Backbone:
């Protein structure tokens, strides 16, 4: 839908101006004097004619804009505009002017004058339509620029949030402690831990400036992040991944979308041997769904869901899609639409 425009002042000025000037310039009043009652009736008649033509073409213009885009279908757009101008102007003008000649009591209908007025009205309608289209395009450009700015801001906030979480002192402290312990007790596992940690950071840096990434890349980040957390939590973190054969390299999601959901689940729920956290990720044909057992931790403040709100905003701005969130007594589920890639 086109952005709304405020054209009330334009109509208040334009309709009387056309309704009064064109009849005087084309001789539609004939020999009628201003004191003649028929002259006053003519003024009202022609202003009503201008009102009908303006609003008929305005309605046609607004209606076709909902279905045809200038950039995708320019020829169809021009054809519809011309047809709309013709049907919204010519029949109304001819009918109203013929009726005027009968009502005013002229000896005969001046078809030459009607032809001139019809042509004049058509030219004026084309001009006014051009003004409307120009205003629409300007507003659409402003709307697109604002939308792009919001997308960039949301993406930058998501990147900062992800980097902040990864560079958080607690995360680094736990990771370094885990790595130090593994180096002493299990060097091969320490090497794997270090490589996965490096891949996580590398992915975060490489995805900066990108609105969408391949689902295959996101799943690799998810697997690496799960592996890092598994070293820390052991069997207390139980992750199940179910894939229905979807082509991971043909679907896209916003960067760090899955990592945000996993991080929120671990941060805000109990994860212990007595209260394990079950997390299930289901990759379907058109959605990826992440659900986890809901057992809120008592030692943290209630979640403000900043990361989740930001993720929803990125979907809304970049793809005009909505995520689905179900917060139930024993589970928390987020479903993300998959966006078709090239």
Residues:
């Amino acid at each position: 839908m086109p952005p709304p425009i405020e054209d009330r002042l334009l109509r208040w000025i334009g309709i009387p101006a056309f309704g009064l000037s064109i009849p005087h310039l084309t001789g539609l009043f004939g020999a009628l004097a201003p004191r003649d009652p028929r002259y006053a009736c003519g003024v009202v008649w022609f202003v009503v004619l201008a009102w009908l033509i303006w609003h008929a073409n305005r309605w046609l213009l607004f209606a076709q804009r909902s279905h045809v885009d200038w950039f995708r279908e320019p020829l169809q757009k021009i054809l519809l505009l011309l047809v709309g101008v013709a049907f919204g102007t010519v029949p109304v003008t001819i009918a109203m002017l013929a009726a005027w000649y009968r009502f005013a009591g002229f000896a005969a209908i001046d078809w030459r004058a009607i032809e001139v007025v019809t042509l004049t009205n058509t030219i004026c309608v084309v001009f006014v339509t051009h003004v409307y289209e120009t205003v629409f395009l300007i507003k659409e450009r402003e709307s697109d620029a604002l939308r792009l700015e919001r997308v960039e801001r949301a993406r930058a906030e998501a990147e900062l949030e992800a980097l902040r979480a990864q560079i958080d002192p607690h995360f680094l402290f736990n990771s370094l402690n885990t790595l130090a312990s593994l180096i002493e007790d299990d060097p091969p596992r320490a090497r794997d831990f270090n490589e996965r940690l490096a891949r996580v950071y590398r992915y975060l840096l490489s995805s900066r400036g990108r609105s969408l990434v391949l689902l295959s890349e996101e799943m690799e980040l998810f697997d690496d992040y799960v592996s890092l957390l598994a070293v820390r939590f052991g069997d207390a973190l139980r992750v199940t991944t179910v894939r229905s054969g979807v082509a991971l390299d043909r679907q896209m999601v916003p960067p760090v979308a899955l990592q945000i959901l996993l991080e929120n689940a671990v941060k805000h729920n109990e994860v212990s041997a007595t209260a394990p956290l079950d997390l299930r990720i289901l990759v379907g044909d058109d959605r990826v769904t992440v659900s986890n057992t809901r057992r809120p931790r008592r030692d943290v403040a209630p979640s403000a869901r900043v990361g989740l709100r930001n993720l929803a905003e990125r979907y809304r701005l970049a793809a005009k899609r909505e995520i689905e969130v179900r917060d139930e007594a024993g589970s928390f589920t987020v479903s993300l639409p998959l966006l078709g890639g090239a």
The first strand starts at residue 213 and ends at 214.
